[in-house]
Structure formats: C-alpha cells, structure tokens
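Reading a protein record of the kind used here takes little practice once its layout is understood. Each number in the token line that follows is a code from a learned vocabulary of backbone shapes. One such record is shown here in full, so that the layout can be seen directly:
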Amino acid sequence: MSKSKPTRYRTTNWCSYNASLKKRGSLTVWFDPVMVWEGLPTGRRGRRQSYSAAAIQTCLTLKVLFGFALRQTTGFVEGLLRLAGLAWSVPDFSTLSRRQKSLTVDIAYRGSDGPLHLLIDSTGIKVEGEGEWHARKHGASKHRIWRKLHIAVDEGSLEIRAVEITGNDVGDAPVLPALLAQIPEDEEIASVTADGAYDTRRCHETIAERGVQAVIPPRKNGKPWSPTSPGAIARNEALRAVNRFGRTIWRWWSGYHRRSRVETKMNCIKLLGQRLMARDFDRQIAEFHVRVAILNRFTALGVPLTQPVT
C-alpha cells in the first residue's frame, strides 16, 4: 500500500487569531474598583482574613506569569495599584506564601457547544535537582524531585477541564478516574482519548460507566479480556480492529491523532516555567492551578480555526 500524502491545513481566522496573540502580550492590567479585595467575614470565631481569595489569586497569577519571587510580586502589585489610583493594601510575601497553601484557585472555562471530547495526558515538571544536561554530563544527585501533572483538555475549546498533581511514583492510569470525576455528571462526554499507558481494566470500566467511547490503543502485547463488562467488551473490539487492520488505520479511523493537541498544551504549560518555585506540595498544587487558569484565559482570547486544503 502506497504511503498517503500528509494533509495540509489552512488557518481561516488569521486576522482575529493574530489579534488574540497580541492581546496575550499586552501589559494592560485592569482592577475592578468593586472587586472584593479585603477579606470578608466568615461567621467563625477569631480574626478574619485581611485579603480575599481573589486578591491572593491575582497576586499569584502575576507571580507565575512574570516569573517573580514573592517579594518582587508584592512590589509589582503595589506599583500597579498606585498607577490605578487605588488605595488598597498589598499582602506581604509571608501572607502570600501562607495563603497559597490552602488557596482554591478559580479556573474559568467557556465550555463547548456539544459533547466533550476529552484528551488526557501527563508530564513531569522538576522541583529540585540539576537539569538534564548536568545529569548526563556529571551524573544526577539523590535530590532530584519531580511532580507529575495530569490534565484533560476539551478538544472543542482547547481548554483544560480537569487537572491532578501527583508525585513521580504514581502512574498515569490510576489518575484517570479522578480526572473524569471533575467533569459534572450532567455534562455529556462523547469520547476520552489517551495513550497506551491507560489501557487498563479500571480505566476502561470508569469510562464505560459514564457511557463514553474510549479511544485508547491496546498494548502491543495485549490479549483479549474476559467480556464480563461493557469496558472489557469495548476494549476487545478495539483490539480486534488493531489486529485486523493495523494500528495506522485504527488511529485514523478512531481519531486518535487528536491527542496531539493535549501534548501541545503540555508544552504551553512548561513555557510558563520548566520547574516549580514552590517547595511544599500543597503550594505546588496551587501553582499548577494558577498556570491552568492563565492558559485557559489565553485560550479564551482566541484560537486558530483550521480546515484541510483540498
């Protein structure tokens, strides 16, 4: 069989997409005067918090976006408030560090018009230790620490809909149920696409319980499972299709190539920093969530719309 020519694509909304890329680099920062900056009463005993969660997230967002340290973030926000003519106080670096540990980051998303097509993947981000070149040249120390980021991206809007952070000793497959649990039950999911690392019985069963199509390539040495559940039956059908037509045709037929978009999103996450600045695990979770909120905001500004060129 002759090799098919790669499909060429053309961007149809270049003008609006070009404008959105310029907006991503704009230094304009808007502070709503009616924004709840000071902390609100909680109804509990004791002194209330001086700053709201929105104020802490605003400061941490600027910290992650520009790669500042905590003290630099405090000075930067203070200068912005002075330019805006707002007489608001600024949380000091110790307040930001303390509140980051328990902060619940508000991650906004637009949603899709139809059912979700979730693309799932994971990657590692360094916390401590030497870089890859130093490790290959001089050897790695015992204090190299990594965290694993697991995300689920909506193919339609290209926004991150679910995120989980684990240690580097946790595999990919055990985290998939937690990612799907973050999608509301009343929101319809059409398919879940992931690589062969998620070809486990628990992953297929979790996907089948939501009535969703699983687009997961069977392992190369995979054997048929006992057809005792809907997840096992769907996986066996994919295995038969791969054995009969080959993996290349199965990937084209199932739409597995869509998973490249979540890999692109992973690269965008690392563009905000190749390593984490926080050292505490709870603070690292908040730092990851702030990155996700920033990327979803960038995506909301505009994405390219492409179509195949005939």
Residues 281-301 form the longest helix (21 residues).
